[in-house]
């Protein structure tokens, strides 16, 4: 999900694998961090510009064109709870909202992370993982 051009990504991965080689990967998939996306939209912030949270169906369509066969892709929820609001806000600042806070001062960053965390339904991130299992032709 960090690489915007999945067609190029899969083509490059196919290039470095031997025929019959297996690609097993996991990344953010469709619906990933939906509660964070809603919170960002409520705050008027762009949610995850440049990130691609693909569906299994779209990924299965892309893989054969890149040189993979027998591709199987699926989503699974991987909720990630935090024990404290402070721990959640720290994780939001350093990982999830990293691109959002790059140009902010420490005070602005902390306030922004708190505003996002306060809009989440619980002390948890609703990760959705896209799993990929494919063989190179």
Structure description:
It is a single chain. This protein is 44% helix and 25% strand. The protein contains 6 helices and 3 strands. The relative contact order is 0.28. The model has no long low-confidence stretch (mean pLDDT 95).
Which key features would you list for this structure?
137 residues, three-stranded antiparallel sheet, elongated
- The unreliable regions are none
| Largest β-sheet summary | 3 strands, antiparallel
Reading side by side through the largest sheet, how are the strands ordered? Answer: 1-3-2
Proportion in helices:
40-55%
- Count of β-strands: 3
Q: Mean of the pLDDT scores?
A: 95
Report the end-to-end length measured between terminal Cα atoms.
Answer: 24 Å
Structural class: alpha+beta
The portion of residues forming beta strands comes to 15-25%
Quick overview:
This protein has helices at 6-16, 34-42, 56-66, 85-96, 98-101, 106-118; strands at 22-28, 68-81, 124-136.
